[in-house]
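Worked example 2:
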Amino acid sequence: MLDKFHSARYMRQMCSDIINGLPFMKMHGLGNDFVVLDARAPKGEDSGPPPFTVTPALAKAVGHRHFGVGFDQLAVISNGTGDAHLTFYNADGSVSATCGNATRCIARFLMEESGSSTLHLTTDRGDLAAQDMGDGLTAVNMGQPQLDWDEIPLSHRMDTLALPIDGGPTATGMGNPHCTF
């Protein structure tokens, strides 16, 4: 077991070793921040294996707010059946099926890169459609929300439309569990 000093040093070194040789972007959308890694094959080249592999340990090290870059989600852009495939990781290293704010930011980047006003993106949750709305705004159709407790997922059965919290919150799954007020 590593003590705090050695653990922090290990995380700082791991993050430095990886990020120093890996181009990344930092994006922000509606109060969330993201580290974005582009793992797509260069235009005209065979997609082949990705140039790097993201592991939970890497996501956790890069996501650390003091010793890494820090983020709410890490997003990896890769080649896919649509214009791009997006894979998401939370700061604790866990995988998330999608992230709406990161998807909007990445969609804007990809639209500017390609000159297209619409995109077909794939995620672990399914297909998403992005559209340039003008004035720098981007919309993403995230699909139908998941409202059943076991689809979100929550730890135990409950009425997600009537949570026992003042203000009328609703538990909702959009690929990453949310509590919406």
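The CA atoms of residues 133 and 154 lie 34 Å apart. The first strand starts at residue 24 and ends at 29.
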